[in-house]
Write a structure and sequence with these properties.
mainly alpha; 5% strand; elongated; 44% helix; 590 residues; two-stranded antiparallel ribbon
Length: 590
């Protein structure tokens, strides 16, 4: 296990937490808000059930799900739910006194408290006979009226005009310690709600978990079950730390899921670990929010999420593999400058990988004066062996050339030799391959019987959009929710953003049938996200508020599975190579 990190600035973090955590999250027992999909997927379908957590698509709480399984999983779930609800209502009902005319709650021997005393005074005769010959007498006098119980939905009377509750609810109230009635009503109404008890945590850790719950609620992306947060609370209370940021994310992973000698980790609660990891990251970000560059720049690994720059698979920029301190500092400065000028972080990450390869070619103790033209030429020769792919070599050579050019332009390293120059050293490109799909393949892709095999509504609409409008996949999956516009004649157009050409807005005419299919997709999205979604194809994972587009990985996987099912054939009847080999491929016939 890694050595625990000593957290710097814990006092500053505590002060920021005191300013940030809102009062409703400061309780030692946190009750999850019912109206938040972050903590609740819905309510139990049994109307009388006070529990809000559900078991998946059945919309049953855990208890009633067990009852449904014990009943041999009846297929008619609605009828079964009605029967269970009726039994639950009957069990929760306060029974009335058996004496006709009396509506007080039963206290003993099926009689209310008053009539039980009268029956006892009569010598406890046969109950049925005594009830048959006893007449109920209402209270006498102008102020003598029967008072109804104040407990919600209770139809019984109280035992006296001075009481607020019937006998049954008064007994329950006394057993609960005679709390304030209004608060007690609320507590009983939410008695089935899950709770997260934070009292076992030290004050600092407790405040951090309260911040983590607040952050999850405000972010609104991930479903966070209470049972998983409770597991995280147990881990943190048993760990020898005073703050979640005392350990790195890797150290926390080693703690909750230690690896065996074979490198396999033990089974652990992934959701609980993610809560700790996400809360830890949010705490770090809170601490450095005033100037994240000042925190990240000196590090050998930049976490691009702190800089709001994480894109695709590029979450980190790692400089630790550059052994020469001066070259490492120069590369960091260049990468920061490239990012500040609007260069994609994916491009910067590719440049960094090329420069790491170059740095490893230099001697570990090489000085700036050792970066000569001869050294560059030997590196280019090594590249041809290490990277046979022409495009990879061009990227690497051009990255070094760009670094040297920008370094001279900004005078970042005056000790570089004058001959440290990259000329036209990048290998020539091979003849370009067609980026369009052949007509033979397009006929198979457009075949209605093949399109019907697509398992996803999102992809079933996306493919006609790719074909009809010639979109790239990365542009199609980021289409805005309101992506259809009309000209002055009422003809529909698809409005999209060309992300390859600096986010340029573009329009393409579409058929009315395709516009109707888009409208149907919008209705499906609205049913999934009543609060609205930014995208026509929102992600189905960690996206409760609809703010994330569908992922490229998911699209690729589903597309490849579909292409395998339809068995795409080339002009010679042989299995054709998937046309979906690059996100830059344009799905339109050549």
């Amino acid at each position: 296990m890694n050595t625990p990190q000593i957290h710097r600035g814990s006092a500053g973090l505590l002060a920021k937490l005191m300013e940030t955590v809102r009062p409703e999250f400061r309780a030692d027992v946190f009750r999850l808000p019912r109206d938040s999909p972050t903590f609740f997927p819905g309510e139990c379908r049994i109307p009388s059930c006070p529990t809000t957590l559900t078991m998946g698509r059945l919309l049953l709480c855990r208890t009633h799900h067990h009852h449904w399984v014990a009943a041999d999983r009846p297929a008619d779930l609605e009828s079964w739910s009605v029967q269970v609800d009726a039994r639950l209502r009957q069990r929760n009902q306060v029974l009335d006194c058996v004496l006709p005319g009396c509506n007080r709650a039963r206290a003993a021997n099926t009689l209310c408290h008053r009539h039980a005393l009268r029956w006892n005074h009569a010598g406890r005769p046969d109950l049925a006979d005594w009830v048959g010959r006893t007449i109920y007498q209402p209270p006498q006098g102008p102020q003598a009226v029967e008072r109804s119980c104040e407990f919600p939905d209770c139809p019984r009377w109280t035992d006296s005009t001075n009481a607020s509750l019937c006998h049954t609810h008064h007994s329950r109230w006394r057993k609960h310690g005679r709390p304030d009635l209004s608060g007690w009503y609320d507590d009983l109404a939410r008695r089935g709600d899950p709770k997260i008890r934070l009292g076992q945590l030290a004050p600092g850790l407790r405040l951090e978990f309260q911040f983590g719950l607040q952050h999850r609620l405000d972010e609104g992306l991930r479903f966070t079950p209470a049972r998983d947060v409770r597991r995280a609370v147990t881990w943190a209370s048993q760990a020898p730390v005073t703050s979640l940021v005392d350990w790195s994310e890797a150290h926390w992973r080693d703690y909750v899921a230690p690896a065996n000698p074979d490198g396999q980790r033990s089974t652990h609660n992934v959701v609980a670990f993610r809560f700790i990891a996400d809360t830890r990251f949010a705490l770090e970000h809170l601490l450095i929010a005033d100037d994240p560059w000042a925190d990240q720049y000196p590090r050998e690994t930049w976490d691009l999420r702190h800089l709001a720059l994480a894109e695709g698979e590029s979450r980190y920029l790692r400089f630790g593999s550059i052994p020469q301190p001066w070259l490492r500092e120069l590369t960091k400065r260049w990468c920061r400058w490239r990012i500040s000028t609007g260069i994609s972080v994916n491009t910067v990450a590719n440049n960094l990988r090329s420069l790491v390869h170059f740095a490893r070619h230099l001697p570990p103790n090489a000085a700036p004066a050792d970066l000569t033209r001869a050294r560059i030429e030997t590196w280019i020769a090594v590249l041809s062996i290490d990277y046979p792919d022409v495009y990879t070599r061009r990227t690497a050579v051009n990255a070094l050339g760009r670094l040297l050019t920008d370094t001279r332009a900004h005078d970042w390293q005056p000790d570089l030799p004058r001959n440290a120059v990259v000329y036209n050293d990048a290998p020539a490109l091979p003849p370009a391959k067609p980026r369009w799909i052949s007509e033979h393949l397009m006929r198979q892709l457009e075949n209605p019987s093949n399109l019907a095999l697509i398992p996803s509504d999102d992809l079933r609409l996306m493919i006609p959009l790719l074909i009809s409008c010639g979109l790239r996949m990365k542009d199609a999956r980021r289409l805005r929710f309101d992506c259809v516009t009309h000209d002055d004649t009422g003809s529909p157009y698809l409005a999209w953003i060309n992300h390859k050409i600096h986010g340029r807005a573009a329009f393409f005419p579409i058929s009315q049938d395709l516009a109707d299919e888009i409208a149907e997709q919008q209705r499906r999205v609205e049913s999934r996200f009543p609060g609205g979604s930014r995208f026509l194809f929102p992600s189905g994972q960690a996206n409760l508020n609809g703010s994330k587009p569908i992922s490229d990985t998911w699209c690729r996987s589903l597309m490849e599975n579909w292409l395998q099912r339809i068995r795409l054939l080339d002009e010679h009847g042989r299995s054709a190579r998937s046309p979906f080999t690059s996100s830059d491929t344009r799905w339109a016939p050549g």
